[in-house]
Amino acid sequence: MSTREGSVAELEPGLLELLTFWVPQQPWYTGTPDGPVAVRVLARTQLRAEAPRVEHLVLAVEQDVGVEVYQVPVSVRWEAEHRMEHVRIGQLRDGDDHRGWAYDALHDKDAMDDLLRHVAGSDTVGSLVFVREGEVELPLGEPSTVLTHQHANTSLAYGDSALLKAFRRLQPGTNPDLEVHRALTHHGNTHVAPLFGAVTGTWSDPQTSEPREGSLAMVKRFLVTATDGCQMAEASVRDLFAEGDLHPHEVGGDFRGEALRLGNAVAAVHADMRATLVSGTLGAADLRAAAAGMRARLEEALPVVEGLDALAPALGEAYDAVAAHPGPVAAQRVHGDLRLD
Predict the structure, then answer these.
(1) pLDDT, tens digit, for every residue of 247-296?
(2) Is 304 helix (H, G, I), strand (E, B) or coil?
(3) DSSP strand pairing (124-125 vs 162-167)
(4) Looking at residue 94, what is its pLDDT?
């Protein structure tokens, strides 16, 4: 493991102003895109000094509704890079002087090659700590490609063997997705993509200025040949509706075998989670609190989800049953980012 000092010099002139306009327009921003925004830097580390220069920023973004913390790596290039036009933050100027062009560094292949090398070396750079899990081989030198299906985070593939997920909105502590993958990888579960590495960082709390530490990114195996189980199920149903007078096996829509395998995989994942992560019991007070939380989320969803009001009475009865249960009931961690791949 190597340790390197990240620069803590002032930001380029104008960069913070550019970010004030750019951040609220991004798909991972959870605030209101039209309201007034105040942006300030909670942590800054220079990840790359040569061109393109890369600044890793942790930003506090504040609106009337509250303040959130976001991760925004910035790549600075002297010349405009047309292939990254869609992630251009803006032109940096100091008075009339051109100081370069700023881009979202997660879309910059040069910057992301450096990042994976830091993971491979288990480096520490300024406030960032890179960790390689075991003796895994990382695809150094492979160009990175940003995947377009995610909005809350940003994921990029290195060739066809590694996938990096950068968490955009940050919370103190270990990200649950990283925690689950680490536990299942160490337990030897073969139904999840094994964890290759992770990145953590520290920043100042936007309210108290106390130091906070949390997960920034994770690297896992890229399951390039995986098939989406939900899409398979939908295709099966479409085939059945198209040929309503035929049996499932006659139209290629028999999903029973795949459904059984998916069910077994999900069961195995949660059995291993029970064995490796914290489990316990919920008492009567815990169940009442859980039911109240579910009811509150239902009330928030009713005005915005069409047709939900028809289901609200039955859902309310289920919540009432939870609240009335005397307990205790067994409780364990579940996979909050479960997808049927």
Answers:
(1) 655 555 666 777 787 788 888 888 888 888 888 899 999 999 999 999 99
(2) coil
(3) unpaired
(4) 83
Q: Are strands 124-125 and 3-4 parallel, antiparallel or unpaired?
A: parallel
Quick count: other Cβ atoms within 10 Å of Cβ 254? 15
Distance CA 190, CA 269 (A): 9
> What are the two backbone dihedrals, phi and then psi, of residue 245, each rounded to the nearest 5 degrees?
-95, 5
Q: What is the mean pLDDT of residues 173-178?
A: 92
Share of the chain above pLDDT 90, in %: 59
What pLDDT does residue 299 have? 94
* Residue 292 main-chain phi, psi, to 5 deg: -65, -40
Q: Cα-flanking dihedrals φ and ψ of residue 138, to 5°?
A: -100, 145
- Asked whether residue 2 carries a pLDDT value surpassing 60, the answer given is no
Q: What is the pLDDT of residues 298-340, one digit of tens each?
A: 999 999 899 999 999 999 999 999 999 998 998 887 766 666 5
**β 97-104/66-77 pair status:** antiparallel
Handedness of CA 299, 301, 302, 304 (dihedral sign): positive
Amino acid code (one letter) for 116:
L
Strand order in the sheet with 3-4: 3-4, 124-125, 128-132, 195-204, 211-221, 162-167, 153-158, 144-146
Give the whole-angstrom CA distance, residue 157 versus residue 221.
9
Phi, psi of 9 (to 5 degrees): -70, 170
Yes or no: say if 262 and 340 are a contact pair by the CB < 8 Å rule: yes
> What's the token pair of residue 200?
């953590």
Could you tell me if 155 and 164 are in contact, meaning their C-beta atoms sit under 8 angstroms apart? Answer: yes
Mean pLDDT along residues 64-86: 93
pLDDT value, residue 234? 66
Q: Among 210, 73, 26, 198, which residue's Cα sits nearest to residue 124?
A: 198
Helix/strand/coil for 26: coil
**Helices H / strands E in the chain, number of each:** 7, 15
- By residue count, the chain amounts to 341
d(CA 133, CA 162): 13
Task: Tell me the one-letter amino acid at 156.
Answer: L
